[in-house]
Amino acid sequence: MEAKPALSVQRSRASQLGAFGTSGAVPPSFPFLPTSVEGTYAKCSDALRVSLERESMQHPSSVVSPSSSSSGAVGHIFASSSGISTDLQFSSQQLEGKHPRQSPFISQSTNSGESVILPYSIGSKALQSSTSSHCNNQNNGSWCTDSLPEFLDFPATAQSCPLDGSDSGIVSIQSEDLSKQNDWQDWADQIIIDNDDLTSDLNDLLAGANVAEPEPKVLIQMSKDSINYSMLQPHASQQLSACATAGQSPSSNTAPAKQRMRWTPELHEAFVEAVNKLGGSERATPKGVLKLMKVEGLTIYHVKSHLQKYRTARYKPESEEESSEKKLTSIEELSSLDLKTGIEITEALRLQMEVQKRLHEQLEIQRNLQLRIEEQGRYLQMMFEKQYKPGTDLIKGVSSTNEYPSNELTDAPPNSPPQEISTLEANNSKGGDSTNLATTYSETSRPVAGNPKANDAGMVESPSSKRTKVDE
Amino acid sequence: MKFGKRLKQQIEQSLPGWRDYFLSYKDLKKLVRLISSASPPLECGKAEAEFVCLLNDEIDKFNSFFMEQEEDFIIHHKELQQRIEKVMENGSEKDYKEELAKIRKDIVNFHGEMVLLMNYSNINYTGLAKILKKYDKRTGGVLRLPFIQKVLEQPFFTTDLISKLIKECENTLDSVFPPSVSSDAGTLRGEKEALALAGEGIFQNTVAALLTMQEMRRGSSTHSHFSLPPLKFPDSDILHTLQILPPIQIP
């Protein structure tokens, strides 16, 4: 069991380097990973395994491209809600991509009776973007150390995928990778990351890793590259906080380079000012801009990537951001074909604008409704907990207008919300005007507070349903 | 699998660069099915952790994509403003007209893209909510409520900034476009010829998104009080005629 998680973690790291082409096999020779690392990497494992599978299926090299094509730096600061972090219990489940063999259940190569295999048919890119975010964490320097041994071992032990192709693929991709990393080598030297941490991690893993012959030279090179590589991940973000072991706070523990910065117009203003002071977007350097901006928490990576975007937006205004529009929207083509006059184009644009405004309006309303619904749910949950705590006698069989089976607790709201929402629906179907929604909803939500009786009656039913669940 | 189908349609009709960043609804659904059917009591905790992990992965995906797009939009917005300023100052008649025409188109498309990003956010949220509901239903868990609370706070769902940019865009439009001739009711009914030639583009996606939204909110078998009420557009028939479904799936 220990081995499996370790292995899959390694594989995931390896897949980060775009090199891994096997799936499934679990040589039981990697007992070394400490549990903490296990925990941290646990998140990576599945998504990465999937990408791993996809790698082996399709394009071994494809992992390299999405990451390296994205803009360079990776400054990330945005601290996502720490609430998302749950206690990660490392599970040994494994996901397999679509194989020619199509084994939807426990694969032959892995063993444990617990694995849940899922034919994961996501686009590989999607997975890669998420996977790339996952393996970016404090110990990112350390992943590569494990990947090499894997390469060496796998050919011997992996049973599933065709290895021949992937082996050579591995080698070529590795070199491709290395050369691409070279550019970043330079400013890798300016890294703000605490290099000591990384090297100590590396050492730990090397020491603990009694694995088959890791070649030190290549390892070191790889580790540097992996550091660089991690810089390239544009999606490296608050993944740690998202799936980290409980207690890890999103912004403080992770190295600065990992977190994504959420830019605002004000920040951008400051950025533009700084750039202009330095003589324009071509002449300004990230370091200079960073110094001028004097914004706390902003790293050079953030600035660098933002600067890159800024440059492309300015100097290729027609071909960069609008390229898709230009190619796709035919209104301009129409004008060039002289089929339509300027006025008609304007009218067509107006129409497009109307439709877009309509969609926007609807989205806003929908979003507000969704927020309200969840707010209601939270309120009810709170009420329920208050009720439940004193251990009041639960009156079973309280009649309610609740139409839903009581075992769906979260979908079985007590009386009052249904009443509100049903009136809401009634109004809506009558009026057909969606703007009524927001107003009627807000109007009818008031009765909740003023209707304690209904609440209680409703509440009483839910505890019984919840209780059954808890007992199960 | 109604939502799944709708989502898939929406993805197919979305901008090419966006297609990989939507919710992997189908796969999550399969996972839920697997978990509910395969898990002995021992597994429940692990399975749930696994599921949560995957969901978090998805959320990260959304967040990254969303924030990246948002950053681009902020930059673009500023650029547009500068261009407009320049054009307003500019004396020369001919250049002015051309540049103005370009700016108009750019503003409209920019507006459209931002709205589509909001749609992206919303549809992914909806998918998450649905998958959580399914999970709870099938496994008897209580994952949904607390989890969705966290989702609500995520960057990809907090679209206030984008909304603000969109409104600013609409305001700028007035200064750049000549005063409107036709009335509100008329706008949707005119100009169909121009759009008949429109291919896969922002406008197309917007229409598709609107219609999808309407479809999704029609009553379903699992319509509950946590569901959104049905959506009725007065001129949805017009919208339907504006919609052009791609004949071939674009890879």
Pattern of helices and strands of chain A:
HHHHHHHHHHHHHHHHHH
In angstroms, what is the radius of gyration of chain A? 28 Å
Structural class of chain B: mainly alpha
- The quaternary state of the protein chains shown equals heterodimer
Proportion of residues in β-strands of chain B: under 5%
How large is the radius of gyration of chain B?
21 Å
Total beta strands of chain B: 0
SSE order of chain B? HHHHHHHHHH
Residues in helices of chain A, as a percent range: 55-70%
Question: How many angstroms separate the termini of chain B?
Answer: 22 Å
Helix content of chain B: over 70%
Distance between the termini of chain A: 28 Å
Structural class of chain A comes to mainly alpha
Strand portion of chain A, in percent? Answer: under 5%
Q: What summary fits the major beta sheet of chain A?
A: none
Average of per-residue pLDDT values of chain A: 54
Low-confidence stretches of chain B: 183-191, 196-200
Question: What is the fold's blueprint, element by element?
Answer:
The complex is a heterodimer of chains A (472) and B (251).
Chain A: H1 3-16, H2 35-57, H3 64-69, H4 124-134, H5 140-157, H6 163-188, H7 195-208, H8 216-232, H9 239-243, H10 265-277, H11 286-293, H12 300-315, H13 323-328, H14 331-336, H15 342-388, H16 416-431, H17 434-449, H18 452-471
Helix pairs in contact in A: 1-2, 1-5, 2-4, 5-7, 5-8, 6-8, 10-11, 11-12, 15-17, 15-18, 16-17
Chain B: H1 2-12, H2 25-38, H3 41-89, H4 93-139, H5 144-153, H6 160-176, H7 184-187, H8 192-196, H9 202-216, H10 236-242
Helix pairs in contact in B: 1-9, 2-3, 2-4, 3-4, 3-6, 4-5, 4-6, 4-9, 9-10
